[in-house]
Amino acid sequence: MGKPTWRTALSDRIPGGRDGRRMLTVTFVDRIGSGLWGATATLYFTYAAGLSTAEIGVLLAVSGSVGIAGPPLGGLLADRVPLRPLLITVQLVRAVASLALLTTTDLGLLLAITSVGSLGDRAASVLTKLYATRVAGPDRVRYQAINRTAMNVGWAVGGLAAAAALTGGTVTVYRWLLIGDALSFLASALFTLGCAEPPSATRIAGTSTPAPSEPTPGDTAPSDSAPASEKTTAPTPWRDRRYLTYTASEAVLFLDDSVFKIGLPLWAVTATSAPHQLVPLLLVLNNVLVVLFQVPFARFGATPNTARTSLWPLASAFLLGGAALAASAVGAPWFAAVTLVLAATAFTVAEMLHATISWELSVVLAPPTAQGAYLGVHGLAQAVQRSVGPLAVTAAIAAGPLGWLGLGAGLAAMCGAQRHLVRDRGDGALSVAPVTVSEH
Fold first, then answer.
1. CA 23 to CA 297: how far, in whole Å?
2. How much is the pTM?
3. Sign of torsion over alpha carbons 248, 252, 256, 262
4. How many CA atoms lie less than 13 Å away from 218 in the CB half-sphere?
C-alpha cells in the first residue's frame, strides 16, 4: 500500500467524510459574504438607501428582534422535514432578501426585507450546526472547532475584500458588495446541493414503529388503554425546564461577543490612554488566535464531563478579562495598551472555550429524537445576547472599572451555576432526565 496523499491525510483529520468537508466549504463561502456585508451594511443604508442614523437604528433593532425566531423555527422544521433541502431553501431565501434590498429605499419595505434576511441568517446558523452534529457524530466537537476556524478565515477574507473595495467609496461599490453577499448564499446553496442527507434519529424513530400483530384469544387490549403516565411523547424543549435554564445561562456566557464588538473598542477610546490605532489590532488578534487555537481547544469538550469540567477555566478567563479591562483605565499609555491586549487575549480564550463547551453540552443534553427542536431553542441564546448584550456592556462601561470587575465576576459565577445545572449523576454521565407525558 502506498503512502497516503496530503488529501487523504486531510480527509482523515476532518470528521464527517466528504459531506463534512463540503459543509466546511459552505461555511467558508457563507462567511465571506457575511464579511462583505458586515463591513458595509451601515454605509449602504446611509449612502445608497438614504436612511438617517435613527432610521438605521430602528431597522437593525427590528430585524434583529424578528431574527430571534429563526433558530427555534429552523430547529423545529428540521425534526419534521429533510435537513438538506431545508438548508438549501433557507440559503436561497437569504440570497433573495439580499438582492431585494437593491430594489427599494422605502423604510417599511427595507424593514420587511431585512427581517426576512435576519430570520434566514439565524435559522441557517442552527441548521448548519445540526447538519454538522449529525454528519460528524461523536467527533462533533472537533468538527465544530474546524468549522469555527473556517468561519473566521471566511470573515477575514470578506472583510479584507470589502476594505479594498471601499477605497472607491461610491454607491456603486456598496451595491456590488451587497450583490457579492447574495452570491455567497447562492454558492452555499449549490455546495449544499452536493451534500447527502444526514441520518436523523427523529425520522428513523418516526418510521420504524413495528406493525401491530394480530391479537390472539386471551390477549389484552392494545396499549390505547394504558395509563397516560406510561406513554411517551415526542420530547419538547419548551417543557424541559432544565434545558430552558441551560439556554438562559448560555445567553449570559455568550456576552463575550458584545464585549469584543462593542465594549472593548468603546472602552479603549473613551476610558483609556491607549492609542486608538490599537483597537483594530485587538480585533485582528482575536481573529488570529481563533484560527490558530480553536482546533487544539477542541480537547476541552471531547466528552460531556470534560466540557463540564472546562467551565472552571472558562470562569477564570472571564475573571481575568474583566480585571484587565478595569486596570486599563489606570496608568500610562503603555500600561493601558498591555492590559487591553491581556483583556483581548483572555476574552478570546473564553470565546474559544465556551464555543467548545457549548457545542458539546447543547447536543448531549438534547434527546436524539428532538435534536433539531432542542438545538433551535439553544440558538435563542445567541440571538437574545445580540439584542440584550449591547445594553449589558454599555452599562459596564458607564459604571467604570468596577463595572468590568462586576461583569467578569458575574460571568464567572454563571459558569459555576451552569456546572451545577449539568451535574454528574455519580456514574460518569451527565444528569439528563427522560421525557415522558407524566413528567412534563
1. 21
2. 0.70
3. positive
4. 0
